[in-house]
Amino acid sequence: MQPIRNFVILAVGVALLFSIPAYLFVAERPSPESEPVRVLMKYLKAVYARDYRQAYRLISAQDRRLKKEDVYVRERGAFSGFTLEVGRKLSEFIEIRPVKTDFKDDRGRIKLSLTLPDANSLSELLLNWDEDRLNALPRTEQKRILTSLDQLKRKNGLTMIQGEEEFTMAKEDRVWRVYLDWAAGVRVNFAATVPPEDGLEARPTIKETVARSGELFQIAYRVKNLSAKKISARIVHRVEPKSVAQHLDLVECALLLPVRMLPGEEKEYASTYLLQGELPDDAKELSVTYEFKVEH
């Protein structure tokens, strides 16, 4: 697996995950111990650590009805194994201070001041965030890395990033949850076209998702060579309707170069997207098609 740069993106700017309109806050300074603030802090630390199964449980039921847990976890690129342990360790060092809040009935707005460890500055220690390599390290080496992180924290040796962000909370059955308002987002459908006679099979691991402007999400395609010969194919990336295509940015794609596969070989190729800008009011759906063209 190639180094995962999304972690750095998420750590540097939580705002890329949520597109929240401007809001007027009252000057009340909330208590860090209040339930909605506590839930939000727990959610943000889970997101930073890429512990997306934990984060999903803290999202509102209204949002979860529109996106299943497995889809959410997969499209965000969750960490696992020791890499997840490192993410959780770093999330312990996050400093979160509530600044302003406004609550009315079952809705609330919270503005936070965030100080986050700069994950990119730790690339050398953490093998350039190569998840396969980190997870394969001997336990003694893994413990050494965790100890090094603790020492850096104690000696104020961690590079930190500061910023402020605003969030919406929803109260459901007397429990506060993070409200992402996916219902206001755009449904993005994924498909693949492959000439059947060329011996190549391709399919998206996630056929559809819902995203809001400002959100990063990841999808992958499983590609298999069904033939008895080596295959090389290039991919044409199509987004419809064209009037909305400009709002979907391809941040990173493993299929930009031609695919070369041995007989019977099967691989997974990931792509990261960012939906951005002010979309037209009638923009409710996007279709993304990967057209595989086998080179003869």
Summed over residues and divided by their number, the pLDDT gives a mean of 86
- In CATH, the architecture of the largest domain is Roll
Please mark out the parts with pLDDT under 50 across 5 or more consecutive residues, or reply none.
1-30
Radius of gyration over all CA atoms, rounded:
21 Å
Strand count, sense and barrel status of the largest sheet are: 5 strands, mixed
Order of helix and strand elements from N to C terminus: HHHHHHEEHHEEEEEEEHEEEE
List keywords for this structure.
alpha+beta, 9 helices, Ctag/Cox11 (Pfam 04442), 296 residues, Nuclear Transport Factor 2, Chain: A, 4-stranded antiparallel sheet, 13 strands, 5-stranded mixed sheet
Per-chain topology:
Elements: H1 6-12, H2 35-48, H3 52-56, H4 61-64, H5 69-76, H6 81-91, E1 95-104, E2 107-117, H7 131-136, H8 139-154, E3 160-172, E4 175-178, E5 186-193, E6 200-204, E7 208-211, E8 216-225, E9 231-240, H9 242-245, E10 248-253, E11 259-261, E12 266-275, E13 285-294
